[in-house]
Design brief:
Layout (H helix, E strand, L loop, with lengths): L1 H13 L5 H18 L4 H25 L1 H6 L7 H4 L4 H21 L2 H20 L6 H21 L7 H19 L3 H6 L5 H5 L1 H25 L4 H20 L8 H26 L1
Length: 288
């Protein structure tokens, strides 16, 4: 049992399982919004969560596999499990294959439309890993890939595609892209030496921070659109106030001369924002 738990912890560190907290609350918020239209069963919710976890595991495993050489050269990432040998390449390939199959199975259990959309979704998730090799807008591609989560959750819950869910998906897209740019500021010198096209490496840290703040401003505006599209109540607006303040605080903490604060802003503040968004939708739904 200790060996098994250690192995699971290694896989968890490989795919950064703790970072699930960024996108999962948005997907669950989409389920709650869909529940207002038609009841969502617990079994459907279970398959949705399983599909999200499987898709993310496949994508993160693939990213670690194709970025191995860059991770090995970068001092910040040189302690990742695949680099130090805590897990081997064949095990990562097995993880990618098994997670992809589990995602397809979960999608199939959620209906024909979900199953039809599952392969192109995987393709988008996998293609992201190569984008930093040729475009400075790779962060937006990552945002788009993760922003599919609320759309997928809505389709799984309702069996149909509805444009009303797009503001929430776009809020997640710009939110993810914005803090991914912040995170990439840590590696701007390494990315330049390796000829990688992260936004900070191409445009400089100061401009990258400015672009990130613009994206997060757009995220907040999109959350306001969600308020109108779904006829949310006052509870939702009450929660938007601290979300806006946290987004503002995030960009006060991280400056070109204070990049050591990136991890604080990246994980702790963004985790709180994601949970507040879920709480806003959940309590607004409950108070109805």
């Amino acid at each position: 049992m200790p060996a098994l738990l250690n192995r699971l912890q290694t896989y968890g560190r490989l795919i950064k399982f703790s970072h699930t907290i960024f996108a999962l609350p948005f997907a669950l918020a989409a389920v709650l919004l869909a529940h207002r239209q038609q009841p969502v069963s617990l079994s459907t919710l279970g398959w949705i969560v399983l599909a999200l976890a499987a898709a993310r595991s496949a994508a993160m495993g693939f990213n670690r596999y194709v970025d191995y050489e860059f991770d090995r050269r970068n001092p910040r990432t040189a302690t990742r499990p695949l680099v130090v040998g805590d897990i081997d390449h064949s095990s990562v390939l097995l993880l990618i294959f098994a997670s992809s199959l589990l995602f397809l199975l979960s999608a199939g259990m959620l209906g024909h439309l979900c199953l039809a959309l599952a392969p192109p979704t995987l393709l988008v998730l996998f293609c992201y890993s190569y984008t930093k090799r040729f475009t400075s807008f790779s962060h937006l591609v990552l945002g788009f890939a993760i922003g599919l989560a609320p759309v997928g959750a809505w389709v799984a819950s309702t069996g149909s595609i509805d444009l009303r869910i797009l503001p929430l998906a776009m809020a997640l897209m710009t939110y993810i892209a914005g803090f991914d740019i912040l995170y990439a500021c840590q590696d701007f010198e390494f990315d330049r030496t390796q000829r990688l096209f992260s936004y900070p490496a191409c445009r400089g840290v100061a401009e990258a921070l400015h672009f990130s703040s613009l994206l997060h401003t757009l995220s907040f505006l999109l959350l306001l659109i969600v308020y109108g599209v779904f006829d949310m109540g006052g509870v939702y607006l009450v929660f938007l106030a601290p979300i806006g303040m946290l987004l503002f605080l995030e960009h006060q903490l991280v400056r070109p001369e204070r990049l050591e604060r990136v991890n604080l802003a990246f994980f702790h503040i963004n985790s709180a924002i994601s949970l507040l968004i879920l709480a806003a939708v959940a309590l607004d739904t409950w108070t109805r």
